[in-house]
What we know:
Helix content: 25-40%
Radius of gyration: 23 Å
Order of helices and strands: HEEEHEHEHEHHEEHEEEEHHHEHEHEEHH
Structural class: alpha/beta
Number of helices: 14
Largest sheet: 6 strands, parallel
Distance between the termini: 31 Å
Amino acid sequence: MPIFFKKGASYVECFMKVSGSQSLPVVMYHYVNEFAGSITVSPVRFKEHCRVLAEKGWRGVGLDEAEAFLLAGEPLPAKSLLITFDDGYCDNYCFALPALHAYGHRGAVFAVSQRLEPGGAPRARLEELLSGTADIPLAVRRPVEETPQGFSSRQDVFLNHAEARLMQEQGVLTLASHTRGHYGVYVGPEYGGFFQPGPRLRTFYRTESPPVWGMPEFAVKPGLLHRAFLPNPDLQARIAALVPQEDTAAAVFFAQERNVAELSALVASFRDKLGRYETDEEQRERMWREIGGGKAELESILGRPVRSLCWPWGRYGKEAFSLARDAGFQVFFTTAEGANPPGRPEAVGRFKGKDKSGSWLAWRAWIYSRPLLGKLYAQVRI
């Protein structure tokens, strides 16, 4: 019997012995603000996460250190992890950066380049953020508001260019790519209703072209995994002429049954002419706008090369991966949980940061710092 299976050894100790080389745990956050949600961690909780990690000996490494480990196997100190934020919200600057700085952590923001706001000055001065005296705008703290029609609508505030560059200069959070627009695509002619004003609490379940009120509500899925279904422009023009495109007027239109019946008859008249699928060339051009275009935009904003890409929704196909390689990306982050041993940059696993205790986070980091244990734990959770 091998020595690591000696009598009295726990299963965890056995896994630690078998696991061999180091694994880099990567935690995935999105929002750090005061509006509760499934992908939101409150500023108070996030600061607790940073404090507990530091107290337990963990250190959030920089993206450059993580890339060196994942690409070339450059060793990292024990209890290293990578703290990441998806999308590029301003609350990452206002709330996450000061907490990371206070406890000696670094991390990465995967930004959607098209959503970064051009121009302007930082909404809060860095020294005020770090001292805890900054007046954070309400829109950053609670990015949801009521529309005139009485619907809850998310109005996210993204980093502006000045804030992005300031974060980079400060050295705590480094920006990398989350594509140009984080767009989905329609995937077929099937639909379950019509686009109309209503609640909107998700930011990125949308296509490159905003929907026309009254258009069939085709299913939307990740754009770097699927071929796009392109709605018939003649149908779109006919619907736009029938249905008011101003939100309040559109809501009034849909409140009348006879209007909905007329719209339904118009869409039915197109039957098998609702649209078409994009060609191979169109698909490559669209994906290149997202992948290569996002990289070029972000590099122009930051003034430096960007070599890490985080896939929107963690989903991509062979064509997208090939284009990303052509664009010059070298490290690829997903939303799948799993271990990250050295020299494995093609599909970096991440676990979700939740609004739970700092001890919970440190325990998850410990699991994913062991290659075999992290792999097995991810499989069990699936």
